[in-house]
Amino acid sequence: MTAGTPVAPAPSAPAATRRRVRLTAGRRKHGRRVLINVVGLLVFAVMVFPVYWMVSTAFKHGQDILAYKPEWIPLDATLANFSDAIHRAYFWDAVKNSLIIVSSVVGLSLVLAFLAALALAKFRFYGLKAFIVIIIVVQMVPLNALIIPLYISFSGVHLTNTLLGVIVTYMTFVLPFAVWTLRGFLHGVPKELEEAAMVDGSTRFGAFARILLPLVGPGLVATAIFAFIQAWNEFIIAYVFLSDPHRQTLGVWLAYFTTQRGTDWGPLMAGATLTALPVVIFFLLVHRRIAFGLTAGAVRG
Amino acid sequence: MKARYIAAGCLAAALAVIASTASAQRVGEPRTGATKLRIWLQTDAQANWPKVVAAANAAVERKHPGVEVSVEYQTWGNHLTKFDAALAGGTAPDVIEMGNTETTKYMAAHVFQPLKAKKYPNSRTWLRGLRDSCRFKGKLYCVPYYAGARAVIYRKDLYKKAKIKHKPKSLKEFTAAGKKLMKKYGGDADFSALYFPGKYWYASMSFVYDYGGRIAVLKHGKWRGTLGKPKAVRALKKLKSVVRSLSRASRTTDEATPQQALVFAKGKVGSFIGNGWEWPYALDPKVGNPGLAGKIGAYPMPSHIKGRYMPTFLGGSDLAIPAPSRHKPLAAEWIRAFTSTKSERKLAKVGKVIPNTTKLANINRSNPQLAPFAKAAKYSWFVPTSPNWVNVESANVLQNMLVTIFTGRSSVKQAAKHASSQITQILNAG
Amino acid sequence: MSERFPAVPAPAAELLPPRPRRRFRADRIAGRLVPYGLVVPAAAVICAVLGYPLYLLGKLSLEKYDLEQVLTRKGVWVGAANYTKVLGDSEFWHVVGRTLIFTTVNVSLTMVLGTLIALLLAALGRFMRLLLTTGLVLVWAMPVVVSVNIWLWMVDYEFGVANWTLSHLGLGSFRHHDWFVNPWSGWGVITAVVVWGALPFVAITIYAGLTQVPEELVEAAAIDGAGGWRVFRDITFPILKPIFIILTSLSIIWDFQVFNQVWLMRDQRPTSDYYLMSVYSFVESFKISHYGLGSAIALIMVATMLVVSFVYVRQMVKLGEVR
């Protein structure tokens, strides 16, 4: 471990040493690089296999879905399942409702959680401990046990069968976790950064907003994806709360592929594939923020 | 400073969300001042006979111009959860479809409105199995909707090639025919003469009732499980030997996972015990094998007594009006429209199910695809009509017993006695 | 380790005195209220949504609330009868034991594998990293219902890919192998599904934390001759400790409450050797309609979780004090 300031640029003597070390270790590094990539590919293949199976099933003809010998690649691909799924009743309503719910939940939860995490991470105040304990304990209550009490409670204020009721309920499940995670990331920010910003002549809030926000970017992204997926795929609350078929979400819509006669696998897998797309798109839009590290700009100068 | 802006922004966002959704309709609030009649049907209606539903809706709306009929489809797995929540929250629907094994518990709790049979079409000729699931302590609490019966669906061509000359008329002949099939085709490790998954309790209990046994009897106000009695044990032993020698299906799954008609469609099954709709399902161009058309037949499962049929489980659904409904007369009208003779006839034809009245039995009789099931429906058995029966199903007592028997984990007698005492305990609880 | 990094507890944060220009007392008071203002929106939502339901849950656990009561919407007071019934049931204690073992196994596997994958992500080149992360997000994005059904298919007795592959790999005949006959094997499959579904979130979050570890430190340590494990142990882990604590406690809380995977993998009709506390509570409430009993079991679950995760919870609260 060096004793030097981590934030200062590396001194010249060690730099020369480093360059020498790099050259001699070059070939070994290349082999190591190949090995790591292979491992990465293997892990990818193992983790993604079930997803691949879902997508490939979506493209298979109905008769080929149940097969004694697995068909690894659907050579005879068909779009019939997708067409079937899209044309099922209330598909576009479900998409619309899910988008409304998810954007509200993600947006509001991030804002509220960030503010609360700020308070928890940077301040000391009465009630801090109580709030911390509350948000931990709240996550321990099993959702199934709360279905009926939640329904009774919401029914009393006429919020059942509304998107708002579902949105605030989802927020309640997302907030504790979001506050926790963001607090964790905020803890990881060194104090001298704040101090440096304050010396710059800004108030405490100015420092927070300008310095901390980009630095907890990764935390915000992870939290946003978490909130997105929770809200997007949730089933039981949406099913129990929303009676009107026009109000239902994609999670509920997927359940309708099952009747007493069994499940329509092809169209269900097609519907599920379509349902997974927005999450992936959202992720691809924000993924760069995950890699936004400490070294990117804030430290220099 | 910036934090304050953020706070203001989020408050604004919250208000916007509230404003946009507050204008949305609330439960029970109809559009433009009309009355909303809420009907809970299962996804089967949506998938298989949506036009019949639409016709009933139109009939009611035509007669009552201010009424909007809203059908909300439910899933079998969770509809009772949602129903209980709706009851607790005061938002129960006006009509609800219940499985005929689910009704007793709710009837005993007075959840449904008592009805007068004569006000509903064909009440005098309702199928006994369904009508019994709607009766509790002498009162009628729901209206039969449709039923399903099981029969043996088999490959005519495989039977012919195995030199099985005619349809078996007794269990003995059935087993012999099955053994011939296994001799000819059993070399393929996937082949089953009779595809019978271990947890298929509907078909398994048919054996018990055929031999004169019963699941439970009510004596002096107390239920007693009777699967441990000699007749039932004898039946289960026979069942075990039949399944062991003729079936290669999994011992631990049920008939819907995977869907047995589709396994049959794959071509390595000689016969299976299925519902009427499973025959055309095996031929479905989307998921089945249309190439088997013309090679499939059906006959009622024969009894161990020659010339008789084994009693079949009469599954089905009923329609009930929850007591808290605020539109009971309208609900009753909708049920009348939906279970009218015309509607039931259409339903049976399109859905390939058994209509709720024996008056329409002949429409199935003339259809070779549906006739065997209608025939089988004449001899049926039903589960003990105790409010706690649902708990026996939830506790998987019968399925556990069957799995234990078929996997040989314990002897037939032991497993049956254990299940019997469990049933006694659960049925008499609380 | 430099004393400037949060791995070493820093002095508790105090509200800095305002800048030495004209300051009004109102500003100072307003400054004191700032943390409350920040916390109130989130706290308000949580309390508004869960306040009354939690009270109802507690009330239900002290009542008899069967179907008749659901209909009349009024429970019958029975005091602690539900609790004594549950705690006196030997079956219940088996279920508790099973839940504890299940949670321990799942949390350990998730955290270890998640960390390994995060380290892998950090070491990969840009393209492979994006590929693997996208793959993880795909896994994360699958609805539980769909993913469980895919897994069920993979281990299907008749048509499963698993049986076919294992047989063809020469590992013996897996034809018609039933994965759920033996509860150990069945739980193995369920654990695989749960861990598989939990990995993406853990891996991505830890990776996000890894990106905040200064590269200079790692490189400097490498030059000093530290191997991968020492770098992890002495540099990475201390920086990431808050995140590890949080993820572990969250994993404990979530894995303790696992329900959907067990329920769906047993076709919504699990036998008693597949009961976890969450399943037991659900069956009592929604299948047998003893909502009072089901609520009592749920609250016992909360108490158990508090006891089990006490160490972590205390650490998390401490993280807040020492700053």
Structure, explained:
The complex is a heterotrimer of chains A (301), B (430) and C (323). Chain A has 14 helices and 2 strands. Chain A is mainly α and 301 residues long. Chain A has a two-stranded antiparallel sheet. In chain A, helix 9 crosses helix 10. Chain B is globular and about 65 Å long. The model of chain B is unreliable at 1-10 and 19-30 (pLDDT under 50). With 430 residues, chain B is of the alpha/beta class. Chain C has 323 residues and is mainly α. Chain C has a single domain, classed as MetI-like fold, CATH 1.10.3720. Chain C has helices at 25-61, 67-72, 81-87, 90-123, 126-141, 144-154, 161-168, 183-210, 215-223, 228-256, 260-265, 277-287, 291-308, 310-321, and strands at 63-64, 76-77. Chain C has a two-stranded antiparallel sheet. The radius of gyration of chain C is 25 Å and the shape is flat. Chain C starts with 24 loop residues before the first helix and ends with a helix. Chains in contact: A-B, A-C, B-C.
Q: What shape does the CA trace of chain B take? A: globular
With helices defined by DSSP (H or I, 4 residues minimum), what is the helix count of chain A?
A: 14
**Widest sheet: strand ordering of chain A:** 1-2
Number of strands of chain B: 16
CATH class of the largest domain in chain B: Alpha Beta
N to C succession of SSEs of chain A:
HHHHHHHHHHHHHEEH
Q: What is the straight-line distance between the termini of chain A? A: 24 Å
Strand portion of chain A = under 5%
From the structure above, extract its key features.
heterotrimer, A: 301 residues, mainly alpha, MetI-like fold, 2 domains, two-stranded antiparallel sheet, 14 helices, flat, disordered N terminus, disordered C terminus, C: 323 residues, two-stranded antiparallel ribbon, 72% helix
SSE arrangement:
The complex is a heterotrimer of chains A (301), B (430) and C (323).
Chain A: H1 12-24, H2 26-58, H3 62-65, H4 80-86, H5 91-122, H6 128-138, H7 143-156, H8 163-187, H9 191-199, H10 204-215, H11 217-233, H12 236-241, H13 250-255, E1 258-259, E2 262-263, H14 265-286
Antiparallel strand pairs in A: 1-2
Helix pairs in contact in A: 2-14, 4-14, 5-8, 5-11, 8-11, 9-10, 11-14
Chain B: H1 2-22, E1 35-42, H2 43-48, H3 50-63, E2 67-74, H4 79-89, E3 95-99, H5 103-108, H6 128-132, E4 135-136, E5 139-140, E6 142-148, E7 150-155, H7 156-161, H8 171-185, E8 192-195, H9 201-210, E9 216-219, E10 222-225, H10 230-246, H11 260-265, E11 269-275, H12 278-282, E12 296-299, E13 312-313, E14 315-320, H13 328-338, H14 341-351, E15 354-355, H15 361-365, H16 371-377, E16 380-381, H17 389-394, H18 397-406, H19 412-427
Parallel strand pairs in B: 1-2, 1-3, 8-11, 13-16
Antiparallel strand pairs in B: 3-14, 4-5, 6-14, 6-15, 7-11, 7-12, 9-10
Helix pairs in contact in B: 3-13, 9-10, 18-19
Chain C: H1 25-61, E1 63-64, H2 67-72, E2 76-77, H3 81-87, H4 90-123, H5 126-141, H6 144-154, H7 161-168, H8 183-210, H9 215-223, H10 228-256, H11 260-265, H12 277-287, H13 291-308, H14 310-321
Antiparallel strand pairs in C: 1-2
